[in-house]
Amino acid sequence: MTPDDTAQNAVLAGLSESPFARLRALLDTPSTQSEHISLAVGSPRHKPPQFALDCLTDNLASYGDYPPINGIDSWQIAARDWLARRFGLAPEIYGAPHQVLPATGTREALFLAAQIAPDGPDKKFMAMPNPFYQLYAAAALSAGATPLYMNAVAETGFLPDPSSLSDDTLDQMRAVFMCSPANPQGAIADWAYLDQWLARAEKHNFLLIMDECYIDIFDRIYEASPPVSALNVAAKRPEGLKNLMVFHSLSKRSSLPGLRSGLSVGGENLMAQFLKLRMLAAPQSPIAAQKAAALCWADDDHVQENRSLYQAKIDLAENVFGANYGFYRPEGGFFLWLNVGDSEAVTKLLWEKGGIRVLPGTYLSAYLGAEAKGENPGAGYIRVALVGDMAEMKLALPRMHDILSAEGIK
User: Fold this and answer.
1) Which residue segments constitute the domains of the chain, with CATH numbers given?
2) pTM
3) Of 9, 108, 179, 288, which cross-links 59 as Cys (Cβ 3.0–4.6 Å)?
4) Sign of the alpha-carbon torsion through 259, 217, 127, 358
5) pLDDT interval class at 374 (50, 70, 90)
6) Is 81 exposed, middle or buried (0-12, 13-18, 19+ CB in 10 A)?
7) What percentage of the chain exceeds 70 in pLDDT?
């Protein structure tokens, strides 16, 4: 048997390479700078709350026990209290014991959510923004669905236009992935926008999967009135949470990506199916991690401090870049989405001349096919992750601007 004859998995064959694997291949040339700065990976590097780290240390012995997959009591209380406090929700809308569940990070939970989406002979699509978090496409393909990419560009406010899909397409929809604040553009979905998607989910019987992991990282204009959740909108609709699952994370909120701790909440029947699948196929969150997570969900002060650090770095970026590269202040999240003309060429330029790693927007997007003339909506952009400290930003951002300006890129 030759290597070409070996058995292959059709799902894996349909997956594209990770954006970061592609980035490593692109930046295979040396940089003239000895000091390298990575602004490519969206992994928060602010100091995590010390009380969470202390809690992990104090509960090391709990790693000797199997944790409950539906969450320890202190986690359940803290998570439900946070949902009520942060979004002003009546606890009754997620009152069933299984309606709020821990997850080992939103990545795992979002993947599994796709597996319980409505199916049937006439259900074949799962839609997602384009650009998008690559996990959405992997989840759709693994669920046996066809990914459907919806452009999220400047002309649509960097969110997909709900009216762009026909009723016939929506009838064939199994799930729609949505992210607010959006990754990478930072756009926040308002009440009316979310209401449009919920109305379509109810009418056409598909699952709306809301990735809200950046929802507590927002610009200062939202301080008096923080971004709403799809939960807020669903709570006011006759169908409630019936077609909705929402996911939150401590990775961004509390700068604890390594804790792998998230929160899942949704309709009663959906979450019953979700729990059934997780009990068979998902890892439990360790007891120590759940205890630390409970403390984080119960505390808002460290989140405000974390948010202020990001706001200060966006202030710096605004001062450095001005109106160049289509700069705008992201409403939420910690990414800059800069329009530089050719994302791969500029990424390579910034690396070779500045030792700075960014992520080409083309690696976060899908080509839309012949009807769209091969358009890739991220091809002209780079994603810049403001995850390092201010000292690093003060080195990296002016250096980027100098390199781009010298090349005549505006």
Assistant:
1) 3-47+302-406 (3.90.1150.10), 50-299 (3.40.640.10)
2) 0.95
3) 288
4) negative
5) low
6) middle
7) 96
